[in-house]
Each structure stands twice: as C-alpha cells, then as structure tokens.
C-alpha cells in the first residue's frame, strides 16, 4: 500500500517508494555493502581465510606467478586483477592450484574445510544481522546488540545448514544400501524389481542438494532477520525458493549487475592508490608494507563478500513480503538484558521489616 503523509489540504509530503515498488530495496545493497562495519567484517573474514590457506599450505597461484612474487617487487598487486589473485578464498579450480584440495592427498584439508566454513558462518552471520536491521528499520546495530544476538541465535547459523545436510544424507542412505544389496546373490533381483524406490530417494536427494546449493544464503538471512531456529529457517528457504523461483533468479541477476558496477567503481581507486604508493615509497621499505598492500588489495574482493551477504538479506526481505505478506520493516530484536539485584530486608528498631537498597548510598 502506498504510504503518504498528509500535511494538510491534500499535500503529499513523502512517498514510501519501498512500499510502492519493493524492488528498489535492491538499490540500497551497494550503499550498505560499502558501509564501514560491513566492509570491515568482510575484509577480516577474507584475511582470515587467506591466512588459513597459508597454514594449510594451499597456493591459489600458478607456479610462474608465485615465482615472480618470490623473486622481485610485488608488481602483481597492480598488474593482476585482485579477483583472480585471491579468488582462492572460495574457488576450487584445479588448473591454477599448486596444492591438491582432496583430503586424501592433502591431510591439512581436513581442518581447512571446517575452518573456512566456521569463518564465514561467524562473519557472514554478523554481516547479515547488521544488514537486516539497516534495511528494515534503518538503524545501526551496535556491537553489543550484535554479540547479544549471536549468543542467543548464533547456533542457528550452524544448525540450519547441518540439518539440511543431514536430511540429504538420510535420503541418500537407502540408495547406498540398495547398491550394497546389488552385490548379494538373489537380493539383487529384489533390488532390481524395487528399483523405483531407490530412484525416488535419489531424486529427493538431488532436489534437496539443489535447493541448498542455490538458497543456503536465505538460511542466514532468515536467522538474522526473523531470529529463526534451524527448522524455521529451512522451512522459509524451501518455501521462498520453490514458490518464487523466477523472482529469486531475477533478484539475483539485478544484484549481480549492481555488484559488478560497484566492484568496478571500487577497483579503480584502490589500484590507482596502490600504484601511486609503490611509485613513491623507497625500495628499501617495500617489504615492510607488503602486509598492508595485500590487505588493501583485498578490499575489492571483500566488497564482493559484503555485497553477497547484503544481497541475500535484501532478496530474503522481498521474498518474505511476496510469500508471507510480511512488512519490510519487521525484524527480530533482542531485548537488552537488565540484571537487577534484589534489595535486602532488615528489621527496623521496632522489629518491622524494612527494605534496604543494595546501594548503601541509597539505603532507606
């Protein structure tokens, strides 16, 4: 419904364009993704991911480029696109890797995978919470309220995707059992006759995996916006993706286009500033600023992470409004906990009970 404020004689003071055309909410993604706290959280999470790559001995650079970095001045910060250089934070393309990603070939991957997931569960959840409060009621979530929210609902960020994975494994288990029974004489004929049953479980497994792959980000948005538990977040994810698939795709295409525009706008000044820095800093001090140079080089890629989580919340709000008719301004709030001590009761001079304040200066 179009909201207008009448200041007398039919004069319209303000039009709520978000209620009139909700899709304009996506236009705020760029502005919020560039917010100091959102971008800082994405940058810290990305830096921790790169550091985890270092601990695991993973190199996402090809051999020739890595050798150029070790031998000379780190020109790659300027001459090579940052998204190609550090896309190893998520990319799994084997043709540009020096280290295998299979846990069987590289035992360090046993802690790398859960480490990366934990990093982005924490930082992705915090970004989603900040964005959800900003998009709904246009307020800045304080870090105190943010940590209070994580203590109360943070476990749902982990339980929601794990429950879906558990459901996928349960659906795939009958298929695996059918494969084992095929190796047993006589039972293989029974399995062949009842083949439609494992085939149905296979289709269900693929369906669950597909929905999780394309909609897992809605799990985080549901927890951060509505304070959902794992089961409610899963229910919302399946409901929104399955009932509004076309809306979901169109929203992401719009966000993707806006994300590339924002990335190009950020990439140029960052590259220009770093090139100017390398031209003015004496060669003797270059090694001392490599840490800061790599950190600044991650800013354009950190914007992609900030944009991704910000877009997830914005799309979730639009789908929630379309499916559940929930106002865009509705968000879960955590009430501040106020700890109060009970007053002390003492008898007065006449033996009657008297309340004494816990603060001696305020005793009555």
Can you characterise this structure?
The structure is a single chain. This protein is mainly alpha-helical and about 375 residues long. Helix content is about 65%, strand content about 5%. It has a two-stranded antiparallel ribbon. A hairpin with a 5-residue loop joins strand 1 and strand 2 (about 10-15).
Question: For the report, how would you describe the main beta sheet?
Answer: 2 strands, antiparallel
- How many helices in DSSP terms? 14
Helix/strand-derived class? Answer: mainly alpha
Overall residue-averaged pLDDT value: 75
Helical residues, percent: 55-70%
User: Which regions are unreliable across 5 or more consecutive residues at pLDDT < 50?
Assistant: 1-7, 61-97, 336-342, 357-364
Query: What is the H/E string?
Result: EEHHHHHHHHHHHHHHEE
Q: Radius of gyration over alpha carbons?
A: 27 Å
Give the terminus-to-terminus CA distance: 56 Å
* β-strand amount: under 5%
Give the strand order, joined by hyphens, for the main sheet: 1-2
Q: How many extended strands?
A: 4
- How would the global form be characterised? globular
């Amino acid at each position: 419904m179009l909201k207008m404020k009448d200041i007398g004689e039919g004069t319209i003071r303000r039009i709520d364009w978000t209620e009139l055309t909700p899709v304009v909410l996506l236009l705020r993604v760029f502005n919020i993704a560039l917010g100091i706290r959102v971008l800082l959280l994405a940058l810290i999470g990305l830096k921790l991911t790169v550091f985890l790559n270092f601990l695991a001995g993973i190199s996402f650079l090809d051999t020739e480029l890595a050798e150029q970095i070790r031998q000379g001045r780190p020109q790659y910060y300027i001459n090579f696109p940052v998204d190609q250089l550090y896309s190893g934070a998520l990319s799994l393309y084997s043709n540009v890797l020096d280290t295998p990603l299979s846990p069987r070939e590289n035992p360090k991957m046993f802690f790398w995978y859960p480490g990366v997931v934990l990093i982005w569960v924490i930082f992705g959840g915090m970004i989603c919470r900040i964005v959800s409060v900003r998009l709904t009621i246009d307020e800045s979530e304080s870090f105190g309220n943010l940590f209070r929210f994580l203590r109360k609902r943070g476990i749902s960020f982990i339980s929601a995707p794990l429950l879906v994975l558990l459901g996928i494994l349960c659906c795939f288990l009958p298929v695996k059992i059918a494969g084992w029974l095929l190796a047993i004489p006589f039972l293989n004929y029974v399995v062949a006759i009842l083949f439609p049953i494992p085939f149905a479980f296979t289709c269900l497994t693929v369906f669950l995996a597909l929905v999780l792959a394309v909609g897992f980000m809605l799990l985080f948005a549901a927890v951060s916006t509505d304070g959902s538990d794992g089961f409610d977040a899963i229910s919302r994810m399946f409901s929104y993706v399955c009932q509004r698939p076309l809306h979901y795709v169109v929203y992401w295409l719009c966000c993707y286009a806006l994300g590339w525009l924002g990335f190009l706008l950020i990439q140029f000044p960052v590259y220009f500033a770093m090139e100017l820095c390398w031209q003015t800093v004496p060669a003797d001090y270059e090694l001392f600023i490599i840490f800061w140079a790599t950190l600044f080089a991650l800013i354009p890629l950190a914007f992609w992470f900030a944009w991704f989580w910000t877009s997830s919340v914005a799309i979730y709000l639009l789908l929630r409004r379309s499916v559940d008719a929930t106002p865009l301004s509705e968000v879960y709030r955590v009430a501040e906990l106020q700890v109060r001590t009970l007053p002390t009761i003492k008898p007065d001079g006449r033996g009657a009970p008297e309340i004494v304040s816990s603060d001696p200066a305020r005793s009555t």
